[in-house]
Design brief:
Two copies of one chain form a homodimer. Chain A is mainly alpha-helical and 200 residues long. In chain A, 80% of the residues lie in helices and 0% in strands. In chain A, α4 runs antiparallel to α5. The longest helix of chain A has 27 residues. The relative contact order of chain A is 0.10. At the A-B interface, α1, α6, α7, α8 and α9 of A face α1, α6, α7, α8 and α9 of B. The first copy, chain A, binds a DNA duplex (30 and 30 nucleotides) through α3.
Chain lengths: 200, 200
DNA sequence: GGCTTAACTTACCGATCGGTAAGGACAATA
DNA sequence: TATTGTCCTTACCGATCGGTAAGTTAAGCC
């Protein structure tokens, strides 16, 4: 799949924003990485905030697409949530940029002088919450209860994904590899356990 | 409890580092917040990296103290892990600075040109892992398996804590309040469910 | 009084930050 | 051939970055 020029620019920008954050990554650094001058990059995107915004909306489009794929498989409701979570987990483990970017956005979107309304994760989260409500075996739970469940699952997966560099330093490569092998199965177990908690 | 001058400096620095991150918070801004000049702040801590380091080690000392308190209550092993997690969750919900700082450290400690070995979370994590191993009802699980469990629980709690500002914007205050009310009970349920998964 | 030390101050430094202005190279179009 | 728009350049801008150097002020100690 050939990337357009613009997509290549965004891919590199995503990489650097994920690594160093909005403040840590300068437009000059990003441009240098691309073999451009800073002003050429600004020509394409206007300013730094817009560049960052485009990176994020491309990411949120990818997240939404991933969810849609699974929904169109028409799995049983219980499995659907599990597969969405697992797909998301695998995606974030292989593509750490996405995981880190989302986490940074959660941390920074308040402090950055953002005009209101840039909540790139909104659709994605709403979709997961509805899936969880449909997946509950008993009576349909409230949005609030489903949100609590979804967030615990998301957190469990996401937190682990971004912690890989730290964990390998603390516990070593061998232990971490064994942990990774166990992680997915335990994640599935938690999904089912919390779904049945939700029902009661 | 009267804070010493130095503790006040560190408290303010913690606040700003938590809000904006290492790169986003400048020493001039921190000093201004304290009513000092930038150079006065540098006088106390040498440079920015050292200031940040002191903030983090104070935090990790607090985390360790919190865990020790609970261990000294000599609860049954199963409850001990649950109490540690919940204490940690409550602490992070009331003091968001701690939660945000830890998250930022997980994201940044690789990119910052840190001299190796600044793993402020090491002791804290090792302690939790050992508690989880002791808490398992069956045969003592491997460190790797216990780490997977601890990390999922920690992630579930921690991720929710830092997401409060985003969630209130997406779902509104009322829903989020209801979610918070449910969250703790579901967290307890997940602890027990995953402990029994671990045993099998 | 003399001396030391801690806690600052003002005055800088070079580097880098995000961003603007103006114009050149070049391909497509009229 | 002339014109237009895209893409990119060099040359700047003022602000801010982290950090250094040197001097001042006040308190404690002998």
């Amino acid at each position: 799949m050939a990337l357009t020029t613009r997509e290549q620019l965004l891919a590199t920008a995503e990489q650097l924003f994920a690594e160093k954050g909005f403040y840590g990554a300068s437009i000059a650094t990003i441009a240098k990485e691309l073999g451009l001058t800073k002003q050429a990059l600004l020509h394409h995107f206007g300013n730094k905030e817009k560049l960052y915004g485009e990176v994020l909306s491309a990411l949120s489009a990818r997240l939404a697409a991933g969810i849609n794929n699974i929904r169109q498989q028409r799995l049983p409701p219980g499995e659907q949530l599990e597969e969405m979570l697992l797909a998301q987990y695998r995606e974030q483990m292989t593509n750490q940029n996405a995981a880190r970017l989302i986490m940074r956005e959660l941390l920074d979107n308040e402090a950055r002088a953002d005009q209101a309304g840039n909540w790139y994760l909104k659709d994605y989260l709403e979709e997961l919450v509805e899936t969880a409500r449909a997946a509950s075996p008993g009576a349909k739970p409230s949005r609030a209860a489903a949100l609590a469940l979804v967030y615990q699952l998301l957190g469990a997966a996401h937190y682990f994904a971004i912690s890989q560099p730290t964990l390998v330093n603390i516990f070593g490569k061998a232990t971490l590899n064994r942990t990774r092998q166990q992680f997915e199965a335990q994640l599935r177990a938690i999904v089912q356990a919390s779904l049945s908690t939700l029902a009661s």
